[in-house]
Specification:
The chain is mostly helical and about 180 residues long. Helices cover about 75% and strands about 0% of the residues. The protein has one domain (about 1-175). A two-stranded antiparallel ribbon has the order 1-2.
Length: about 180
Amino acid sequence: MIKSLLSKLENIHIIRIITTIIAGIIISFLTIQHVGGYAPCDFCLREQRPYYYCFLMAIAANFSVQNNRLYRATFFLLMTISLVMLYDTVISIIHVGIEWNIWRENTICTNDSKIESIENTIDLLTHMEREYIIRCNQTKLYILGLSLAFWNIILSFMLSVISYIAAGKTSSFSDNNFKK
């Protein structure tokens, strides 16, 4: 279904759609954090980073697709976006597994850099006063009955598939363009 829908679009429009979707997702999670007041856990922050990287790559792909000679760069950028979003899908699956108590959170969802700096009891108490640790297995916000981590599985996988299809269209465009 997605492939037939995307086959009717030109490659430049697909890349603009990818860029717009990623920008919308970034705006959404920043709004949820800063306006809604929902503090992200460590795993949520790990799930957000790939969107920043992919947004920059999508902007670069948007510029490179306009030059026919840069089809390899466009293909590489779109494949990289697809792989990074697939990686984000895996991270989100792990996060949902922690939320559903499939995996233990203390083995996966910890920020060791803050814990290693604690040397004595006084440091521990001051650390506990300054910082409230958000637990990864406690979901505070559900949208249509699904947690945000579950929605991230859907969105990142969808972006991975769309980027892969766009990369395929880029390579087929380059083959057809240079055989003539």
